[in-house]
Amino acid sequence: MTQAWNFAGAPSGVTAGAVTLIEGSSFCISDAAGDISPGGVQGLFVRDTRVLSRWELRVDGEPVEPLTVFAEETYQATYVGRARPRAGLADSTLLVERHRFVSAGMREDLVVRNLGRETAAFAMTVHVGADFGDLFEVKQGNVTSRGDHRISFDEHELRLARRWQGHTREVVVSASDARVAADTLTFRVVVPPRGIWRTSVYLNPVDDGEVTPIAFPADQPMEVTGPQVRRSAWRHETPSLSLPDPVLTDVLRTSSRDLESLRIDDPAHPDSVAVAAGAPWFMALFGRDSILTAMMTLAINPSLALGTAEALARHQGTKVDAVTEEQPGRIPHELRFGVDAEDALGGNVYYGTADATPLFVMLVGDLARWGADPARVRALLPHVDRALEWIETYGDADGDGFVEYQRTTDRGLVNQGWKDSFDGITDASGRIPEGPIALVEVQAYVYGAYLARALLAEALERDADAAARYRERAARLRERFEAAFWLPERGWYALGLDGAKRPVDSLASNMGHALWTGIVPPERARQVADHLLSPEMFSGWGVRTLATTMGAYNPMSYHNGSVWPHDNAIIAAGLRRYGLVEHATAVARAVLDTAAELGGRLPELLCGFDRAEYPRPVPYPAACSPQAWASAAPLELMRVMLGVEPCLPHHRLALDPVLPAAVQPLSLRGIPFAGGEVDLAVRDDVATVTGLPDGLTVGPGTCPCHGDTGADAGPPDGARQAAAPA
């Protein structure tokens, strides 16, 4: 049996210098030479199974010495190396290039250039292995061999297969000019002086007899292949950016490119494209991660948010299942497709999360705010209502008005909020509380879900009475929340309530999510903000997950003192929602500085060491990169600094830019909005917008349907007036 969902350790790390290529839900991890060595986490993964666990190139039995790697697209790379010098020679004369293209299979073009003055003759061998390891086991470093493994080959084709639990998985490796044996492809190569030799090797998975089509045929121009066509379409659909800061420009473009690479689709629903959580270990649809990413990317491509909502709705719970923690109306935590996952976990879908369900409702509300296709949004309303039924029944099992979680078997996740490691929730002394646990951010999401459902009632059903009822539910929750979670002696909100309804009193970043949804009364906002930006919480690279004064604090931990970019983007959005512009800008600039220091790409998380302690951010060793909500964070932070918050049903667009001088003038062209496109220009914090629908009010202040944050009367620390639409 494979491991259950509650693995408590850290995933096996991807070593420094490793190269990860991704396309859809497939990915490949190799070393800098392009080799995939057995025994570790390297491999080619398709549908959560490692279909290639060994892929090592040898020239006359010797490995190639790596020189450099070029990866212009996330699905392809060129590995440049040299063969070992021949005996008696100081330098090698053979340059070896490996041009790799990854999709639901792989193509590798092998190119050898002879830079010498004599003809070169040698044997080039590719060593091949496939353990068909389950992704869960690979990332935990515990692959178990199971089933009946077979190898067959003929003159030009090697076939490796495993049959287990009634399913057959195969991988076919072929090359027209190779001599094939049980685990090798060998090429007898002769290259004239200054000459070039090349060949192509194809790897195609076969799942229960269904052959994966070749994504990169050698006779087809790259620009018309499926992966490149999808990338070109994404780049055409997303806004074009112009600003004078080249570093920030690179950060934002890297974010957009990485998000495109993390898109996944369902062949049964080709018009509904969703987003995976992150590479390498989470190339699958995740409820919480995918939803938050979708919400942060509405400004550049609403189709991603719509597709994510539709994909999750198709897998919404319909029955009670203790093993998978499925319950009617519940939105999944994670979807997996490997045979091993199905056998070990009772199904390919796991539902153990407390937050994905209210976040799903918030996402559908945001789709309405941004003017997404009304027919497709309306089709989600039954799923929204089933989600709210889950919130008020299974989510609030004890009827106290709060959503709690407690796993139903020992196979599930102990913690079911976004800090889901086994020790991710602790009190101020460092003690792990007994459940069920009601998290502060989950109650905030429920508040946001009620406000979203009220908006949907108005916008799509023209039902003012229903809207009023949902707003009343939100107001009652806000009162209960304030009474139960506010800690007056400490001046912050509890991280949660334990099973005895006692506050979990640690100072943590989670309460910033309460600002994001607006559940915090206006008179509390600045005190909360000051704690989040205090030296104990703010590292200079972002807000820590846990304050340095807490018992469980460890800057090198996963959830107890680290800095997560997506967490900071949500906090910044919450601060801006309450008009706390200086606080929000400080968070935004810290995270964008981090991205710039790390080469333009934000990882899943980084260590929480203070900026004064080390001159650069300290990476967390097992962080995913690219990772969806980290990639989305710079885009969300730009939205926050621009002060953009639309509410199309109420004909309002908040627009109140406060940008660093170095990024102005700024121009964004082709922003998707309300079925059309909008252009935005900002100079000296004055915005000009063109292409808006008629009758839209533009200016500072959020829509009243967001709830009372005290920001509509004007931000406490001042904001700029946006220009009227041109």
Describe the structure in your own words.
With 726 residues, this protein is of the alpha+beta class. Among the domains are: 19-216, Glycoside hydrolase, family 65, N-terminal domain (Beta-galactosidase, Chain A, domain 5, Distorted Sandwich), CATH 2.70.98.40; 536-640, no CATH class; 643-726, no CATH class. It has 16 helices and 35 strands. Strands 7, 8, 9, 10, 13, 14, 15, 18 and 19 form a nine-stranded antiparallel β-sheet that branches. It has a five-stranded antiparallel β-sheet with strand order 1-2-3-4-12. Helix 4 packs parallel to helix 16 (628-642), helix 10 runs antiparallel to helix 11 (464-485) and helix 14 (565-577) packs antiparallel against helix 15 (581-597). The longest helix has 22 residues, at 440-461. The chain is globular, with a radius of gyration of 27 Å. The N and C termini lie far apart (63 Å). Residues 707-726 are annotated as: Disordered.
